[in-house]
Amino acid sequence: MIDPKFFLPVTGTVLPRFAGIATFMRLPHLALDDAMVEQVQIALVGVPWDGGTTNRAGARHGPRQIRDLSTLARNVNRASGLSPFELCRCADMGDTPVNPVDLMDTLRRVEDFFARLHAKGMVPLAAGGDHLITLPVMRAIAKDRPLGMVHFDAHTDTWDGYFGGSKFTHGTPFRRAIEEGLLDPRRTVQIGIRGALYNDTENDWGQQQGVRVIDIDEYHRLGTEGVIAEARRVVGDGPTYVSFDVDFLDPVYAPGTGTPEIGGATTYEAQQLVRGLQGLNLVGGDVVEVSPPFDPSGNTALVGMTMMFEILCVLAEATHRRQASRA
Ligand code: MN
Ligand code: MN
């Protein structure tokens, strides 16, 4: 029998937060072939890769800085009362293999890693990396049935291609995911969309597929409560993924990202929105586009790690609830 304390984070009241090796939220670090892996319910995983970035690269450095800043995390969500490490056994499963000079090879490596976690029954919570990493995660976990998605972003990421036909960039993952049947567009809601467009029809494709787009103007008209209600209506009871692009936030809160857009949400609103997802059938999530070279202060990584914690809270509640209903 394993020690129930094994999967609890190292507490800052015993070992100072600046000491020791930085893992996500001070959780144990396990390798895929470790015997303890069979016990893990939620896998926190880094994807140190930005090969899908079309302009300002740097998100490959995200996981390491997020791990560093995540030593500031604590165990209990004050607002919701949720205690994710009590609800589920969580571990830092390390970084996926990547190939910084081969995009297609990296997509295969990332998918394979998440497929192995999925086969062991683990629910993934990923730290990017640019937003293209969500595609191989979905390829790994949505083989059986398409997922719904609550997507926080300044951008829809449903463009068709770049540079004369490149189909795989951080501006295209959800078009590919819908085409591949991984994502159900009618159960997809995109929140916070703003910024200038390449052309006046650019936003049409996703909405033609049935995606619910809540742009930043509607976001402010609805208010946080209204956005939560609409997101819950769209995704319903089915399996749902949460994808959080840090550029959803105004760049005053998260300047360390590749494609900043002014006029975005506050960090407090983002926390409220994710807390509002409690009770949904959440099956995975990610925080992407934290790019440390554009914010060496670490504040964007602090924001990223805190949003990972918020997602972890509602993901652990959902995972716990599913396992209890099976037992
Ligand atoms: Mn994005
Ligand atoms: Mn974006």
Describe the structure.
With 327 residues, the chain is α/β, with parallel strands linked by helices. The protein has one domain (4-326): 3-Layer(aba) Sandwich (Arginase, Chain A). 33% of the residues lie in helices and 16% in strands. It is built from 9 helices and 8 strands. An 8-stranded parallel sheet has the order 2-1-3-8-7-4-5-6, with helices on both faces. Helix 8 runs parallel beside helix 9 (299-326). The model has no long low-confidence stretch (mean pLDDT 96). The protein binds manganese (II) ion (MN) (2 copies). Residues 131, 153, 155, 157, 245, 289 line the site of one manganese (II) ion.
In terms of topology, how is this protein built?
Elements: E1 42-47, H1 62-69, H2 84-87, E2 90-95, H3 103-119, E3 123-128, H4 134-141, E4 147-152, H5 173-179, E5 183-193, H6 204-209, E6 212-215, H7 216-235, E7 240-245, H8 267-275, E8 282-288, H9 299-326
Parallel strand pairs: 1-2, 1-3, 3-8, 4-5, 4-7, 5-6, 7-8
Helix pairs in contact: 1-9, 3-4, 4-5, 7-8, 8-9
This protein binds manganese (II) ion (MN) (2 copies).
